[in-house]
Write a structure and sequence with these properties.
Strand content: under 5%
Helix content: 55-70%
Shape: elongated
Number of domains: 2
Distance between the termini: 51 Å
Structural class: mainly alpha
Number of strands: 0
Largest sheet: none
Number of helices: 7
């Protein structure tokens, strides 16, 4: 395949070649999910089993399911911390700053509601028409 080193298998290729019939211990699955931040494909690769094995364990065992959720939440926490640091320390991170405000400061009025934004745009155009005698927004 172009762009990939010869002789080395990609992670996706390794995950497609799981060892069949391997029983995987619950604690090993939980540790693998923790170590891979809840990524089922990566956990299966580490354990040498199929992704389906991990999926079945998650569905069948509430402790495994909780471990996956905790790992994913911990990853989101790390990502938020990193994004906040970047937004504060990078003067060019305007989009990131707005994203964080719209997701973490909704309770302060920073919402992303397309209908609300559309209504605000219409109201602004109407006021602009009335006050400044600009083009009629209904005729645009």
């Amino acid at each position: 395949m172009a762009g990939f080193p010869k002789g080395k298998k990609r992670i996706a290729d390794l995950a497609r070649d799981p060892q069949p019939g391997i029983k995987v211990d619950r604690d090993a699955i939980i540790k693998a999910l923790h170590d891979t931040k809840g990524n089922i494909s990566q956990a299966a690769l580490r354990l040498g089993c199929a992704r389906l094995t991990i999926h079945r364990a998650v569905e069948a065992d509430s402790l495994v399911k909780e471990a996956r959720e905790q790992a994913r939440e911990a990853f989101v926490d790390e990502l938020e911390d990193s994004a906040e640091f970047e937004a504060i320390n990078n003067p060019n991170a305007h989009v990131l700053k707005m994203f964080l405000l719209k997701t973490r400061a909704r309770h302060r009025g920073y919402e992303q509601d397309d209908n609300k934004q559309h209504a605000q745009d219409i109201a602004k155009a109407a006021f602009d028409f009335v006050l400044n005698k600009t083009a009629n927004p209904a005729e645009s």
